[in-house]
Amino acid sequence: MQPFELSLTEASRAVRARELSPVELTESVLARIAAVEGRLGAYVTVAADAALAAAHRAEREISGSGPRGPLHGIPMALKDLIDVEGMPTTASSRVRAGHVAERDSRVAERLGAAGAVLLGKTHTHEFAYGLTTPQTNNVWDHSRVAGGSSGGSAVAVAAGGATFAMGTDTGGSIRVPAALNGVVGLKPTYGLVPRTGVTSLSWSLDHVGPLTRTVQDVALVLSATAGHDPRDPASVSGPMLDRFPGGDLRGLKVGVPRNHYFDRVAPEVEESVRGAIERLAELGAELVDVEIPMARYVQAVQWGLMVPEATAYHERSLRATPDLYAADVRILLEAGELTSAGDYLRAQRARTMMRDAWARMFDGIDVLAAPTVPMTAAEAGQEAVEWADGTTEAVSDSYVRLCAPANITGVPALTLPVGHDRAGLPIGMQLMARPFHDATVLRVGRVYEESVAGAGRLAPLAA
After folding, report:
1. Is the whole model's pTM more than 0.85, yes or no?
2. Over its length of 463 residues, how does the chain's per-residue pLDDT go in tens digits?
3. Among 191, 208, 258, 338, which residue's beta carbon has the most beta carbons within 10 A?
4. Which residues participate in catalysis according to the annotation?
5. What is the CATH number of domain 3-249+435-450?
């Protein structure tokens, strides 16, 4: 096994044991990027020289005083919405040409303090306003979408071009590409990971979180990045996680949705996810049928919040340089100008009601288990999907539909791989819990992961 094939947990263990140096690990990952990046398009920029310098520095520090923690010397990537001092933050947009960050985002600052090695910046759907990331190819099938908007981060991790990566999630932008590329992704509880220095899409829905190869890897990154930041008005104090119990799931109640999450879902996705839920029962969990409250309002609330907030953020640049935006993003931003204050306030009110209803739902369960997305990766350029009931849905609407509730309510949501369709494309299961019970979804995900073969494997991409 080459170093780039190691999961974060495995690489950290090898570095701590002095079996692998940060330089060897970083060189291996950079070589992997060089071998596959031309086919994948995961990165906006690769800072190879700076990464190697950081790896040498980490090697000296570990040799002298030992590792600061599990991320010390581990090569990682940041979605190109996340500021790093002295580096461009392009948001994968011509609007940001020439922009250079003046200071680190809080997330980059915390990862730097943990000793992580920055490889570079990964592609996003322009300003995170989309679910496909058109610059990037799916690692399992290059003719298909990577998912978005954190598509570059997911593909880099799935291909071995980063040991872990950070993304953002406003309506599924971590979980969608993670599911479509067969990796693990966490949208933490709203406010748990600060967003200071991160380009916003929709301030009341935005989250920052990790994409990794295993659930245990997610916990290590969350521990290093979570915590209150007074510069982010939505930031809150929460549990610091670096370890959590494994074992079985006895005494834990897993909610199985009767509505919404299995409506208009591809048969192979439903089969794999229901099989994974049954596996949770075999591991000791009690399955409980639940009704998803206010499901019919999910799309209206999500768009009612996101569209006007995004337009407000881009108001000046949209008026000054509208032609620099991609057509799909410009249409959405212009649509936001037509949203009335009354419509926005009604969406906020409905969100409050939905949060309360979900809190009552979680009074009877510990975790909700469901598909992450209703279908596997669509063909690049495919605009719509036709379901068995005869309805037609835009691909982007399809991908956001099952992820949006967790953004609206702010609950933690983890996706992990649970199978493949007939074409060999990955299928993801989503686990959600009440706010600040991130450790619960990580525990359930880890127990499931340890019960199946092949967890943490790279996508079968030839070098």
Report:
1. yes
2. 999 999 999 999 999 999 999 999 999 999 999 999 999 999 999 999 999 999 999 999 999 999 999 999 999 999 999 999 999 999 999 999 999 999 999 999 999 999 999 999 999 999 999 999 999 999 999 999 999 999 999 999 999 999 999 999 999 999 999 999 999 999 999 999 999 999 999 999 999 999 999 999 999 999 999 999 999 999 998 665 545 556 789 999 999 999 999 999 999 999 999 999 999 999 999 999 999 999 999 999 999 999 999 999 999 999 999 999 999 999 999 999 999 999 999 999 999 999 999 999 999 999 999 999 999 999 999 999 999 999 999 999 999 999 999 999 999 999 999 999 999 999 999 999 999 999 999 999 999 999 999 889 999 975 4
3. 208
4. 79, 149, 173
5. 3.90.1300.10
